[in-house]
Write a structure and sequence with these properties.
The complex is a heterodimer of chains A (134) and B (286).
Chain A (H helix, E strand, L loop, with lengths): L6 E6 L4 E7 L1 E6 L2 E5 L6 E5 L2 E7 L2 E15 L2 E10 L6 H17 L3 H21 L1
Parallel strand pairs in A: 1-8
Antiparallel strand pairs in A: 1-2, 3-4, 3-6, 5-7, 6-7, 7-8
Chain B lengths: L3 H56 L16 E6 L9 H10 L8 E6 L1 H9 L3 E5 L9 H16 L5 E9 L5 E9 L3 H8 L8 E3 L2 H76 L1
Amino acid sequence: MAEGNKFQLRIITPDRVFYESEASMVEMNTTDGEIGVYKEHVPTTFILVPGVLTIHGDDGEKYAALHSGFVEVLQGQVTVLAEAAEWPDEIDVERAERARARAEERLHDRADGINQMRAEAALRRALTRIKVGR
Amino acid sequence: MATMREIKRRKASIQSTQQITNAMKLVSTVKLQKSRAKAERTRPYTDMMYATVHHVLSCTEQVDHPYLKAGASEKKGIIVISSNRGLAGGYNSNIARLVLNSGIAPEQTVLYAVGRKGRETLCHRGYTVAEDYSDRMESPEYADALEIGRKVLADYMDQKIGEIYLVYTSFKNTVSHEPKMIKLLPVETDQFEAKDSEEDELLMSYEPGEGEVLDALIPLYMNSLIYGALVESTASENGARMQAMDSATSNAQEMLEHLSLEYNRARQASITQEITEIIAGANAIN
C-alpha cells in the first residue's frame, strides 16, 4: 500500500491510550450505520454505537470491541474517543455470553422505557464482545 | 520539673504515634504513585474530550439546546468530591470551604456527595444530600463516574435541578493540589467562544446532525469530567495525606529530641540530688 494513503489514528479511552499509530482505513459502527474512513475524509464528527472496530494498518487487519463514544475526523488525523475499548484477547467471552442471556431475559420479561433501553444497550455490548472475542 | 517517669511515659507514647504516622506516610506514598499514574493515564481522554466539545461549540452558532441554557429550576446540584478518611491535612476542609464560600445558599442546593468527610461537614451546615456515592471513593472506576453522571443528568432533565457544579481537588504535582469548582451544566458557550477566535475555523460536518451530536457528546463530556475529577481527587487525597503524615512524623521527631534532653536533665538532677543527700548525711554523722 502506498505511503501517502496513511493517516494518524488515535483511540483513547478513559483508562489509557488504546491505540496510536498509522492506519490506511478504519471501519466502525455509527448511529448512521457502518462507515469506513480513508485519508482525506471530510472533517466530520460521528457518534459511535457499540460495534466492531476494524483497523487496516501495516500489519493487516486488527479488530477491537468499541462501546459508545464518538469519532472526530480531521485532515490527516482520526481520533476516536470511546468509553470502553477492548482487544479480542481481553474479552471474557463466557462473561459476555452470560450478559447476553441476562439482557435477553430482561427484554422478554417486561419492557418499559429506560429499563428496556438499558437492556438493549447491554445486549448490544454483549453481542459486540462475543463477536470480537471469537 | 516533670519527674523522670512521666517524661519516659510521654516519650513512649509519642514514639508509638510516630510509628503510626510514619507507616501511614509510607502507605499513602505507595497509593499516591498508583493514583497518580491513573490520573495521568486519564488525562489524554479528558483533554481531548474538552478540546472536542470546545471545538463543536465554537463552530456551532446559537444552538437552542437544553444542555446549553439554564434549567427552569432554582435548585443547584453540586457534586462534592472529598475523602472517606481524615488525617489528610486541609484536604477535606478546603473542599467544604469552597462550597460554603461559593455564594450558593444551602436551601437551594442539592448535594451529590462522594466522600464521607465532605458530606458530614456540609450536612451540619444545612445542605441537603440527594445521593451518596462515598463507597466509590476507594478506587474510582469509569463505571462509577457513569452512574453519577447518569443520575445527575436525569435530575437535570426532570427539572429537579437547574445547574450542575462539580467540586473537586485538582492534582498539579505531589505537593500542590488546588480545590476547584467548575460548572458542568449548562455548558457555558461564551467561555468557549472567547478562546477560539484566533484558531483557524475548520468546516466540520456533523453526522447525524448538530443537535444529535450535542445530545450524545455532552453526557460523554460530563462523565469524562466527573471521572477525571474522581481520579485527580484520589491522587490529591493521597498526596495531601502523605504531606500531612510527613510533617507529623518530623514534628514527633522534634518532640522526641526535646523530651530526651529534658529526660537527661532530670536524670542528672536526680543523681546530683542523691549525692548531695549522701554527703549531707555523712557530714551529719561526723
